[in-house]
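re: that chain from earlier
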Amino acid sequence: MSAGEKAKTEQAERKAKQTLGRALGNDRMAAEGQAEKSTGDAREAKEKTKDAFKR
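^ sequence. v structure.
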């Protein structure tokens, strides 16, 4: 699995955690999911930048 694919998978997992937290009314879980999703977004951006410079 490439780093870009890993970032996408992590983003999906974090989004699910955020959504579940909201559905259950668990603000902490929702906030953790959002924070972790943002980390995944940053990782994906880093990989895209790295790929752009490889070409």
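The longest helix spans residues 27-54.
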